[in-house]
Amino acid sequence: MSVLVVLEQTRGVYHRMSWEALAAAFELGLPVSAVVIGEPGEAAGKGLERLYTLPAMDYSADGYTAVLAQLIARVQPSYVIFPHTYQVRDFAPKLATRLGTVLVSDVVKLQADGTAVRQHFQGKLNSDYRFTGSGPRFLSIQAGAYRAETVPAGSPTVEPFAADAGAVCAVSEAPFRESSRAVDLTAAEIIVSVGRGIQEKENLILVEELAAALGAELAASRPICDNGWLPMERQVGSSGQTVAPKVYLAVGISGAIQHLVGMKGSKSIIAINKDPNAPIFEVADYGIVGDLFEVVPALTEAILRLKS
Amino acid sequence: MKIAIALKQVPARDSAPGAAESDLQFEINEPDAYALEAALQLREAQGGEVVVVSAGPARVTTAIREALAKGADRGVHIVVDNLHELDALGVAQLLREAVAGESPDLVLTGLQSDDLGSGQTGVILAELLGVAHATLIMAIEVNGSSILVKRELEDGWFQHVTLPLPAVLTIQSGINKLRYATLMGIKKAKTKEIRELAGTLTPALVVAGPGYAPSRSKQSQIFDGDPEAAAQALAEKLKYEVRVI
Predict the structure, then answer these.
(1) Which of A140, B21, B115, B145 has the largest CB neighbor count within 10 A?
(2) Please, what sign has the CA dihedral across residues A67, A175, A16, A139?
(3) Confidence at A303, pLDDT banded by 50, 70, 90
(4) Nearest to A28 by CA among A4, A45, A52, A53
(5) Model ipTM?
(6) Is the CB of A121 less than 8 angstroms away from the CB of B11?
(7) What residues in A contact B88, CB-CB < 8 Å?
């Protein structure tokens, strides 16, 4: 029994979730090896049995699937563990299918017996997943589920592995950003963030007044920016900005994981939501379960009273 | 161009977690609704046909009918009573049978489902069909036998990718504005074809246990009761403990 962790890096810079996936792998109590496509870099200092390196190549689902399938056939690991990045979502299900197995994606907890916990209904319920097939057990680990700093240091044998990427049918161009960001939410001390619960653009005035009373920056979850009610540059979450202010006040945000990964490092998290089961309350230090249309104006007034 | 939409019917967004099936209301999975809208817009620009494919019990026909009312041309209902016993591969295998029979130029689906959220169906389907795929798609441009798509990457980055057709795309939520079904559309949908296919179930390689409430990582202090009083209590915390007022 052994574990192979597929690390992600871009031009020599490791994705921080690579180390979190590695931390999860050590929970299994089995020998842990890793593979990287490109130079070994920082991974050569981790406490691995072995570090496999594959020739550097631009990302494509076809290419990554082809070379990793060859390595896995050679190494025969019992577990293959990935960070649950956007790139992994793009190729890991294909690779699992190619090898006749199934990926359990977005795992929040991995137990020593291989049971993997993942979330259903946008984080409202957990479910324990068990593998019943005989193929390698594929898992991808959710951002922030494990702590990167728990990975032991070491100096593994680095083993280059020659693999054939085969034909790649997708042609990818260089990544780009839409526009330079005029709003840097990462510098804000206090953020008032608004979600779907606000219902209509006209109601944004309520959170704008609250933000003004607190001297806070205004931010939003994805649906608000998708609707064009606030500009994209105010979006917090996996596809927007990652923030860690002194106070993060979430108004009408249920707390889907894509949002939580962008703000759960905040020092104090405050949630106002009508649904007591909303996952935002799992990370909140303080909360009000109630109708935001009543609570938010009352809170703005209470803050203004305390200030004067 | 012929476009197939793989669409899932899921419990409505505000459903109580773990409620019995008979107590649930169902709706079209939101990312799939954006995939449907993208398909309808492509057909309006290019001509062709939009075929809706959905697997599940009899109630799934409501979701298919809704898609037909919005403008899809035909439906295929893969009849399976226990979709929840399948793993991601099993679901994709059901869809593969139905989609392969249609030989579409393009298959669109949402990036993930609102209920299980595994985010794998489209990618596995592409591998089973032996065609190219791209995920988290924000825009689609058809250029003859290939397409240029805009993919979303992390942290506000994007990328253009060119793919040969046929291809499978998983669509990001919010890429277009969803249309409502018109009265005329609803009327027309009643006469549109929904073909039934018997689904072949493959044994799951991964089994999900029953849902349970997650344990809280933090002990949150909840203020409830009267909104005024709760707001006052929270404001005092902000002033005297969090010290931001």
Answers:
(1) A140
(2) negative
(3) very high
(4) A4
(5) 0.93
(6) yes
(7) 93, 102-103, 105
